[in-house]
Amino acid sequence: xxxxxxxxxxxxxxxxxxxxxxxxxxxxxxxxxxxxxxxxxxxxxxxxxxxxxxxxxxxxxxxxxxxxxxxxxxxxxxxxxxxxxxxxxxxxxxxxxxxxxxxxxxxxxxxxxxxxxxxxxxxxxxxxxxxxxxxxxxxxxxxxxxxxxxxxxxxxxxxxxxxxxxxxxxxxxxxxxxxxxxxxxxxxxxxxxxxxxxxxxxxxxxxxxxxxxxxxxxxxx
Length: 221
Known about the structure:
This protein is mainly alpha-helical. Helix content is 62%, strand content 11%.
């Protein structure tokens, strides 16, 4: 059920502001100044509650923030970000560190050898898109914690997996299948479960569930 999912992984906006220890209008100001991401889900309620005591009709809008984004607020408070450019520089300092760490790792180097065009896609246009999506709350939907490191690993995982599987099942040699399995495991660690109505259409289905059943289970068999 959608509400169960939202309340398990997210906080309604007023509760999120309270958790951060700031008034709601201050949180809204951070979003307006493009320092803090927008809510990842907006839930419009037109509902009715029936109980022994009283019936209740409600028409309201709820805005849900990823619980993990509290860590981004902590960084804003720690470093005193007042303008977007400083917040963006901090985001990409962490993002770039995650990128270099991954691409110099054994898995990252081997994946880049097989599909060298993926690292080249992390250019300035990609950075602009990443920052805009971060501010829109997109990575609160598709990553577990919404942090810059997870954002990079989610992007890289999807991109490498899509490239590796683009030629279809049966096209990969055993060493490539091993790399594919490691990339799927990496993506599984950082990518969210997605809301019930999104699951079948999300990258988790395409890049983890489908890849495991079409490529990896058959290889294991």
